[in-house]
Amino acid sequence: MKRIVSGIKPTGTLTLGNYLGAIKQFVKLQQKMTDCEFYLFIADMHAITTRQVPAELRKRTLDIAAMYLACGLDRERTVLYIQSEIPQQTELGYILQSNVYMGELERMTQYKDKVAKQETSITSSLFTYPALMAADIILYDADYVPVGDDQKQHLELTRTIAQRFNNYYGDFFTVPEPLIPEVGARIMDLQNPEKKMSKSDENDKGYISMFDDEASIRRKIRSAVTDSFGIIRFDPENQPGLANLLTIYASCTDQSIEEIKDQYQDKSYKEFKDDLAEVVVGVLKPIHDAYQTIVKSQELQDILDHGRDIASDYAFKKMRKCKRKIGVGRK
Ligand code: AMP
Ligand code: TRP
User: Fold this and answer.
1) pLDDT tens-digit profile of 292-317?
2) What's the domain range around 112?
3) What's the farthest any 2 CA atoms get from each other in the chain?
4) Quick check: CB of 8 below 6 Å from ligand 1?
5) Cα separation of 205 and 114, whole Å?
6) Residue 81 within a domain
7) What pLDDT digit, counting tens, does each position of 215-273 carry?
8) Strand 144-146 to strand 177-179: parallel, antiparallel, or no bridges (unpaired)?
9) Closest-CA residue to 155 (of 134, 124, 169, 185)
10) Do residues 306 and 231 share a domain?
11) Ligand 2 neighbourhood includes 151 CB (under 6 angstroms)
12) Ligand with smallest separation from the Cα of 25
């Protein structure tokens, strides 16, 4: 059976970008690929590569798990767990650090961006993050990894690491393939459509949080930056703000951008934005309502216990074999 693995970092809030780029895709895949196993985890060990407030981190970890379920995952077929509860993931992360080169890690754009922004106190774990991410994936012999566009480079490095390991020690890890959506892989900031919508943004008008209330969603869409052309067309080069809004519309409704453009060709930006606000509210409100019930439920705890047990079982066996292969320990 093929296995699909993905993760999300519990830093900041969850945005519409996370939903359209990653979570929604995961849910859709689950409906389509009925013969696959789905492993999904909350990457709390990745979160601590930057400073976190402990109580907030713990709360957010559960919030995100609940939000994932609220998005319509099939509970029977999802192995949902928390990264730190599977110590083998971190253990393999360390082993993989010995199979990746400094030069490769230095080329990672996510890391380079942080350095370029001259962020002080860059931790060594932030630098080695891609080795842990590779471990998250190959420990479970994932065949496919659904992610947004920003993770493509990390996935390529994961493949390189897996291949390098296999070449030296003999075939052992499955080399995973990324699955990146055609529409919605890169939702941009509403105030600055040159950069991706990010949960760590200081300007909260730039992103829609999955926890935002209806009024804030409407307000943020209404104040999204567009242009002075006044014509509804898809031109990311010259009308990046509008192109992003069209992408959001298409991705929320599963319509093509072409269709939407035709539908709105004689309409004003205001009419388009008003409708888009309704579309986004229509998507996020039911999720938000479901989230509120799930987050407090015992069921959430039970699902996470179950997920941990299934993932642990695989991880334990795989790591035992892995250590044997590389010659550490007694046997
Ligand atoms: P992160 O929030 O960085 O842990 O990302 C979790 C998942 O959401 C990854 O698969 C990302 O590629 C995806 N993602 C994050 N931001 C965006 C965005 N603005 N547009 C599309 N996908 C995104
Ligand atoms: N690095 C990813 C991000 O920042 C989150 C992540 C961690 C992940 N481990 C993963 C995604 C494994 C897919 C598979 O978005």
Assistant:
1) 999 999 999 999 999 999 999 999 99
2) 2-185+297-326
3) 73
4) yes
5) 22
6) yes
7) 999 999 999 999 999 999 999 999 999 999 999 999 999 999 999 999 999 999 999 99
8) parallel
9) 134
10) no
11) yes
12) 1
Integer Cα distance of 331 and 323 in angstroms: 8
- How many residues are listed for the chain in this entry? 331
| 64, 146, 324 from 197: Cα distances, Å | 18, 18, 43
Cα–Cα distance for residue pair 136/46, rounded to 1 Å:
10
Among 189, 194, 222, 225, which Cα is nearest to 207's? 189
- In eight-state DSSP terms, residue 19 is I
Decide whether any atom of ligand 2 lies within 6 Å of the 126 Cβ.
no
Catalytic residue status for 199? yes
Task: State the residue for tokens 């080399």.
Answer: 175
* Residue 225: other Cβ atoms inside 10 A: 17
- The CATH code of the domain that includes 214 is 1.10.240.10
CA of 8 to the centre of ligand 2 (A): 5
Amino acid at 90: T
DSSP state of 203: -
Query: Could you tell me if 61 and 10 are in contact, meaning their C-beta atoms sit under 8 angstroms apart?
Result: yes
Q: Which two tokens stand for residue 159?
A: 């493949």
Do 84 and 217 have their domain in common?
no
Q: Residue 38: which H helix or E strand, with range? A: strand 36-42
Cβ–ligand 1 distance for 22 under 6 Å, the answer yes
* Same domain (yes/no): 50, 173: yes
- Note the ligand closest to the C-alpha atom of 24: 1
Ligand 2: distance of its center to the CA of 323 in Å? Answer: 24
Q: Atom 2 in ligand 2: which residue has the minimum CA distance? A: 8
